[in-house]
């Protein structure tokens, strides 16, 4: 090594390593400083996500604050995921896809019926997943806000029209998020089969948490 340089080796410990089944909900608290990695095992799987301060779940992810702070609709490396008051919850520290949606929202039984027909009313959806998993943490319907859709491709046309099209991910692609505070992460591994967000075939994803 040259004079004045220093080599630092960072040793990390895996504190969680779980596979979330296709269509299933999932949650955990990521301690401040720890890194959550979401791995798209099969490719083209949308991962709907909500974030809350573990210390006070009234402090929660805000799409509006996040978009306004970075002056960009899409999430990528360097994006700080913020609460309504502008405080940081998590930061995207590594991203192999480079484009994630924060305005498309979560599918629900009601929206499925409206968009795809009454024959879809029985289909389980992301809102239902959020309610089931959120109940474990004392959260209810009033606690649900506009969510992040990791790996979901939602282009915006010049006239403001949104689309849901084939994803940009591929098998094994990953995104890493560092917790800036102890953060409750609530996930619906999207069950949607009526549009291309999952390639019409929901698949598992892998979640790991590493502590430096």
UniProtKB/TrEMBL annotation:
One Pfam family here: DUF1989
Domain of life of the organism encoding this protein: Bacteria
Record-annotated DUF1989 domain positions: 18-184
Protein name: Urea carboxylase
Organism listed in the record: Mycobacteroides saopaulense
């Amino acid at each position: 090594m040259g004079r004045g340089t220093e080599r630092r080796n960072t040793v990390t410990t895996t504190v969680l390593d779980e596979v979330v089944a296709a269509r299933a909900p999932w949650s955990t608290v990521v301690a401040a400083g720890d890194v959550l990695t979401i791995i798209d095992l099969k490719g083209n799987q949308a991962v709907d996500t909500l974030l809350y301060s573990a210390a006070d779940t009234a402090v929660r992810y805000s799409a509006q604050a996040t978009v306004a702070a970075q002056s960009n609709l899409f999430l990528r490396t360097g994006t700080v995921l913020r609460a309504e008051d502008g405080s940081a919850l998590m930061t995207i520290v590594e991203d192999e896809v480079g484009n994630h949606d924060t305005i498309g929202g979560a599918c629900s039984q009601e929206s499925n019926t409206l968009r795809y027909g009454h024959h879809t009313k029985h289909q389980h959806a992301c809102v239902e997943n959020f309610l089931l998993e959120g109940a474990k943490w004392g959260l209810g319907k009033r606690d649900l806000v506009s969510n992040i859709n990791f790996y979901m491709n939602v282009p915006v046309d010049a006239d403001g029209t949104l689309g849901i099209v084939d994803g940009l991910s591929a098998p094994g692609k990953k995104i890493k998020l560092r917790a800036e505070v102890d953060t409750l992460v609530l996930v619906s591994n999207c069950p949607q089969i009526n549009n291309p967000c999952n390639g019409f075939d929901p698949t598992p994803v892998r979640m790991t948490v590493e502590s430096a």
